User: Which sequence fits this backbone?
């Protein structure tokens, strides 16, 4: 006999093991989500649910919205808010999850561990003056862009669902409230370490260090100094992550140390944006007046954040402060080189270079300077770059770029790979589509304004497989139409 009852979303294959909640109490606070008036499903990520070993049928329906806003808890959840600090635009502040509640760590059938977090589920002890809530538009934006980043092959937190609360949130105007279910390797940040370093709580710092190493870099446990091992691994992942961002034109927008996850995932999609015209100085955030987090500044800022991380680790590096400092500085001094190495590797991929020549960085840099000078579209230009004669169209009509194109052809001729092999490598590194700002804005406008989710789903689908040409709408593959207003983004909305 088959049952017609909808399966219970609280028992949809959840398998919680909440190791963070077992850490000493200074690291977190027990909280419960604030019930929402009228939960409504908005989006659900069926593919991700299946990857996590969850039953999509139990989580797709109307009934699951109660779970995705926090009115019902999945079996085994132990909700907490995490304590942390962070350098925001260079200034240290005491923060913590002000509107995010960690339900716990779900283990997938293959034994992978993921944080399941509700963002916008109500106030916590760390909310300060905030309401603990989130508006639908920004939560859909995070869902869309984080899933696009995943499609682009870039480490990122994921989005399992967005559900509306049925309650307004008051920003400049009343907006529909919503909760995002975020899935992450962990939510441990540079700022988590900074909090306990600032408090002089070396005991908590040590627990945190051991936990983070065990969780993200288990193969380094038991070899040498744990703090130095953790620093080295985190540096390497950040160098790689930022090179990915540069490769696809992503501007994170708010690289505060509380928004740098030690597991190496892109996290916090508040004011992020993608560049259209290539411009290392591109800034979209309405509050980043100095361009601290500009597109081209990201590797340097990652280095700055890692220096704050190293400082926080000092008490664990060595009992003698002088020695600790020397060891940390020595480790940090390698970051710039690793950062450049990852970026050069990405550039070789974008240019179809299989071999390595000393002039490759100059070759790539000269192209980027030409793109900047001509305000050429970053994604479109790279995706349409082909060996052979330069096209008689913009930006290649620029004499400098025409000359560059000949140099590039000469360079390709000096490697043994065929034109086909070059094309394959380039297609794998130069996406046909990225979530262009004007397209994201239009989709969010339709969704949160008119309640029309069709443009959102079309965008999501096109971005699921961004390196393929098939089924890509021209409004995503082509630069934005002339006169498209410059996008401005906002934090913490
Ligand atoms: P963000 O800019 O999203 O990285 O947030 C920085 C800090 O502000 C974090 O501690 C957030 O939890 C907190 N925060 C952002 N929005 C809210 C809100 N609506 N209510 C409470 N805390 C918030
Ligand atoms: Mg944040």
Assistant:
């Amino acid at each position: 006999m088959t049952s017609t009852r909808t399966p219970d979303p609280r028992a949809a294959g959840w398998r919680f093991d909440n190791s963070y909640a077992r850490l000493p109490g200074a690291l977190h606070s027990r909280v419960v989500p604030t019930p929402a008036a009228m939960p409504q499903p908005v989006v659900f990520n069926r593919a991700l649910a299946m990857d996590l070993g969850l039953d999509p049928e139990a989580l797709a329906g109307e009934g699951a919205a109660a779970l995705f806003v926090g009115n019902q808890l999945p079996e085994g959840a132990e909700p907490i808010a995490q304590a942390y600090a962070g350098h925001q635009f260079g200034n240290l502040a005491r923060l913590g999850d002000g509107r995010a509640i960690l339900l716990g760590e779900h283990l997938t059938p293959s034994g992978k561990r993921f944080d399941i977090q509700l963002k916008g589920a109500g106030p916590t002890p760390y909310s300060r003056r905030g309401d603990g809530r989130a508006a639908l538009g920004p939560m859909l934006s995070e869902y869309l862009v984080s899933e696009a980043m995943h499609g682009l092959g870039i480490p990122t937190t994921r989005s399992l669902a967005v559900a509306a609360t049925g309650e307004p949130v008051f920003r400049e105007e009343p907006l529909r409230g919503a909760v995002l279910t975020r899935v992450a390797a962990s939510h441990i940040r540079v700022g988590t370490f900074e909090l306990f370093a600032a408090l002089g709580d070396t005991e908590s710092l040590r627990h945190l260090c051991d936990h983070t190493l065990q969780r993200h870099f288990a193969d380094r446990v038991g070899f040498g100094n744990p703090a130095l091992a953790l620093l080295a691994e985190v540096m390497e992942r950040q160098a790689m992550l930022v090179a990915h961002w540069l490769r696809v034109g992503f501007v994170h927008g708010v690289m505060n140390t509380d928004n740098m996850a030690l597991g190496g995932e892109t996290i916090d999609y508040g004011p992020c944006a993608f560049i259209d015209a290539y411009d290392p100085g591109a800034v979209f955030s309405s509050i980043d007046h100095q361009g601290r987090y500009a597109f081209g500044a990201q590797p340097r800022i990652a280095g700055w954040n890692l220096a704050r991380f190293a400082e926080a680790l000092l008490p664990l590096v060595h009992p003698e402060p002088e020695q600790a400092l020397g060891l940390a500085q020595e480790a940090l001094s390698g970051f710039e080189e690793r950062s450049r190495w990852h970026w050069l590797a990405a550039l070789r991929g974008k240019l179809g270079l299989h071999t390595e020549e000393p002039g490759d960085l100059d070759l790539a840099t000269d192209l980027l300077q030409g793109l900047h000078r001509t305000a050429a579209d970053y994604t479109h230009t790279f995706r349409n770059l082909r060996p052979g004669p330069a096209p008689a169209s913009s930006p290649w009509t620029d004499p400098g770029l025409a000359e560059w194109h000949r140099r590039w052809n000469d360079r390709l001729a000096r490697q043994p790979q065929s034109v086909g092999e070059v094309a394959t490598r380039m297609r794998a590194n130069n996406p046909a589509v990225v979530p262009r700002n004007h397209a994201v804005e239009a989709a969010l406008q339709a969704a949160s304004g008119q309640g029309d989710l069709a443009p959102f789903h079309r965008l999501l689908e096109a971005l699921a497989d961004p390196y393929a040409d098939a089924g890509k709408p021209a409004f995503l593959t082509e630069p934005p139409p002339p006169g498209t207003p410059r996008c401005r983004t906002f934090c913490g909305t």
Notes: The mean pLDDT is 96. The chain has 17 helices and eleven strands.
